[in-house]
Amino acid sequence: MTNDTKGSINLRIEANTRRLIDEAAAVLGKTRTEFMVESARRQAIDVLLDQRLFVLDTDRYDAFMHALDNPPAPGPKLRSLLRRVPAWRK
Known about the structure:
4 helices; 0% strand; elongated
C-alpha cells in the first residue's frame, strides 16, 4: 500500500467569493489552489497556536511556574470527584 501525500478538498462557494479569491490570487501571482491552501494553512496554524501557545512577561511567567510547581492541596470536591466511578465504567 502506498501513501498518497496529496488529497483533494471540494468546496462550494458563492460566485462573488470565488471572484474575490481569484483576484487576490492573481495579485500575488498564485493560482486559486495555491492561494487557498496557503491561506487555510496559515489560518490553521494561527488557530492551533492560539490554543497552545501563550506568552507571558517575566513576572507572570514566574507566577505561572510557581503555581504549577505548588498546586493547592486537594479540597473536598476534588477528593469526591476522584472517588467517583467514571460514567463509562458504570
